[in-house]
Every structure is written in C-alpha cells, then in structure tokens.
Fold these 2 entries.
Entry 1:
Amino acid sequence: MFWEQQVRYAALTDVGFRRQNNQDACVVQLAPDAETWQQRGHLFVVADGMGGHAVGELASKIAVDTIPHAFDKLRQLNAKDALWAAIEAANAAIYDRGMQNKEFLRMGTTCTSLLLCPQGAIVGHVGDSRVYRVRNRLIDQLSCDHSLVWELIQQRKVHPRDAERMCPRNVITRSLGPEQTVQVDMEGPFPVLPGDTFVLCSDGLCGLLSDSEIGMIAGELPATEASRLLVHLANLRGGHDNTTVIVIRAGDIPEGAQNSDPVIVTRETGETGWWGFIAICVIAILFLTGLGLVSLNPLQRPAGAGLMIASALGLVGWAVMSRRRKAPVETPRVHDPRSTIAWRPYRTASARVTEEFLQYLARMEGELQRAATDENWAIDWKSLEESYRKAADFLAKKRLSKSLLEFSRVFDLLMVGVHTHRKQIQHETRWGKGANPGVKSRPT
C-alpha cells in the first residue's frame, strides 16, 4: 500500500435498544506524515467489553487507550510485531486493573485491530469481533471467531449448519484481560488493492446481519452512509447488543506514488496457451494414426507402433518442458509461528447487491412508515418521500447501487423518528406522561 493512497473511513458505535450502557469502544489512529506512515501506517481498533455494570466498558476503554499508545512507542519493532506486542500490553493492563479490585476481577474484552501499512493489511485479533474485506463484490472474513461455535466446527464435532442451533453463540473462548497471558492471532500482511473496503465490527453487528448484507452495504456505499445503515439495520432487528463498526476504503494509487512494495508470492496458473494446445493436438493425431495402423492393417503394424511410441515420447517431453516453463516463482517468506492463516480467508460470501435485498428494505420501510404515521413520529416527510421515490425508481430501472444509496437516506430519516419516539417513551415511563414535545405531523 502507498502513503499517497487516500483512505476514507467512518467509525460509529451505538448502545442499541436493549442495553443501558455501551461496552463497545473503537479508535482510529492515522499516520500524520509519510515518515510515520513508513514506520507505522494507519491503525483501527474495535473492542467489545464483557462484564456486568461498567466492568466491560472499562475493559474496552483500556484496550483502545493502550493499544495505540503502546504500538506507537514500540518503534524498534517492525509493524506486525509491534501490533502483537501492543495487544499483549493491553491484556496485561486489563488484567492488572482487574486484580486491583475484586469487582473488576476477570473483566475482559474482545479486540480486533487492522493495520494498513506499506506491507499491506495486517490483522491482530482476540475474541469474536470481526475483520472483513470487500473486494470485487466478494466479502472475505479475515479473522477467526474465538467462540465455542467456531471451536466445535474446527474440531469437526458439529456441522456448521447445526452449530448455532446446538451451541450458544455468545460463549467466547479467548479475550483480553481475564488471564495473565493471551494468545493473539496475527494475520497477513494481505495486499491492499485500490477500492478494497475493510469492515471492523463487534458481534452486535455480525450477529444480526449476514456476511452478504454487510458486504453489499460496505462495498457499495460511501463509508459514512455504510456505517450508519449497518447500525440502523442491527437496531431494527432488535438492537439487543451494542453495535460498533468501522468502514475503511482504500483509494486509487496516484501517479508517481512511491513506496516499498510488499513481498507478494506469485504463482503461474498453469495454462498451456495456444502453443500447448497445438502440441497436444499433434501428439493426439500421431497416436490415433498409429493406433489405426496397428488395428486395421497388419502390414503397417511396425509403422503404427513407431508412431504410438513417438507420440508417447513427445507427450513426456512436452510435459517436462511445460513444467520447467511454468514452475512457480516465489519470493522466500520467513515463517511466522503466530500466523493462523496463510492463503485464504476464513469465510467468503457474495457482496453483490441483489433485488431481493432492496425489496426487503422497501418492505421494512413500509412497516416503519406505518408505525410513524400511527404514532406521529417527528420525521421530515417531504425528504423521506422524495428519497423513497428515487430508491423505487432506481430499483425499477435495475440501478441497484443507486437504489441502495437512496434507501440508506430513507432509513437515516426514519431512524430520527424512531430514536425521538423511544426517548419520549422512556421519558414518560420514568417521569409520567406530561407535556408532549412538538412534532411535525405527516401531511394528509
């Protein structure tokens, strides 16, 4: 990746509809100049705290405070080792704080971090928060869930389709803080291509939206609009947990950009090309001719046998030459014992926008609009109806990306009314029904 590449991002955290406090936290630390970029790159972190009352909130805050600070101080280490050490430092800080007060004992947090640097994208990960990459309308999960469900699947004790039915989804097997030491997964570096979109999120998002839905939204919408729509949908599907998401998109490479290129392993595909096809055809013709002479004309059997032997020798010679020409060209790698993945993502799904998903958004909009009308929500109805009309028109014309963008604006407007209405209900529940604040009624 290059310093000159523009990186657009948006970070959003939301308490949800069921929780009283937000135990999620996130932080973004961008390199301020080219020199810092070469040494450290851009750092993004999401943490999801665990524990009653303010315990989880404290653990996630310690994580997002400690990791950037420790990472920046470890200038003597390369970027990947520095990130690994910074996550371990956060674990030590949370553990020490927990040992100081019995109410904080065994408090913990997940930690998912992404580093965009000259070597590419590096992931440091503990827990069940996730890192995704969206590229070419595919979404890849780059991190492994440290959860009971995933552990049983990897041990082949349950089938993936049955795992979530048989096992509680919220049981995690690894986190920062409860133990004095922690095993940190380090992934990458992965090459970063122009247009690549990365998503970091807590399980409040990925527990309620499918990988494909996350990929469609993050891959097609600008970062700010994508992060808002992702949180809106998580809340509309129950919002039973805190939701945090960071969406990052890598820009194009400007002309004249200079950088130390990452080490990338390249392999030939093994395709034979036209010359290989012609050679195979000639060998096949010689073999079939020889076979015909042997079978049909006793007098020509020696000649036929000779053609068959010649074709077999030709096939062997072509295979040897082809293997030499197509031998893999690899740049040597130093094995990293902390690496848990080398060549492929943990899961892949389609991120192509579908008409079915947009029709689902249209149905959800209709249900919300009926509730808004019945309960007299405070909504800018003129802007809402204009955006919905555009979304429907684009959908009818099969301009799906444009339709998705307009639907994101529709839900922005609707969610203003949802949140205002919820606050009003909470106020009346706590203090009793009093003066109703002024609202803008829908015109008849």
Note: The two ends are 55 Å apart (CA to CA).
Entry 2:
Amino acid sequence: MTDVSAESVLHRGGCHCGAVRFTVRAAARITAQSCNCSICVRTGFLHLIVPEAAFRLESGQDLLTEYRFNTGVARHLFCSRCGIKSFYRPRSNPDGWSINVHCLDAGTIEQLDIEPFDGRDWDANAARLAHLSAG
C-alpha cells in the first residue's frame, strides 16, 4: 500500500510528448502493483493507485481520448498525440486514479517496490486494491 501521509511528496509526470501533465501527492517510497491482465501486460502499466484528492491534471484535458472494454467501468485515458496512458480511472478504485509509475518524472521517488497483482483472475483479487484510493 502506498502511504499518503506527512511523508508524501508532490510527484510530477505526464505523457511522452509532454502535452498531458499531472501532479500526484504520494509517498516518496512507493509500492506499485504490476498487473498481469491483458491491457496492463500489453501497455507495461505499473500502478500507483491514489485517492481522487491526491491527483491533479495540470494540462492536456482536451487531448485525452478514452477507451473502455469489458464492463466499461474503467476509463482508460490516452494522449491523442503520443498514445501514452499515463493515468486512468480504474475499475478497482472508481473513486481514485491509477498513475503509471513509468510516467512520473525522475527525482521524487526514493524507493520503488513492485508487488504482483493477478488481474487475470479479477473477481478473486480485485478487493485487494479497494483500500488504495481511501483518503
């Protein structure tokens, strides 16, 4: 679990072309989830799930395009210029955001621990993520 506490820092990040930029308040020592579901494996997404209030889209709202599949709950958002998904609204945490750790700028992460998440068996494992967007 990522600890959003007094030890939190402001991370900055964005897409490849720089048109989409955001900030996220989270711990400097991050535990991220590596999911093995079909879309995460194909995109190399490394999840840092945060509460709604910890995330702020700074620029590029007008360039985001959305993709939904399966249940249609998750809102996968991509930069329409470069195609990078730097964050999205996850099905497991519809009250928060999942940030792609690979899209954070260098300099604010002190430590990165990666834990596996079995997204292929979604129904059996989704509850393990629900607490991550609690404020």
Note: The CA atoms of residues 14 and 120 lie 27 Å apart.
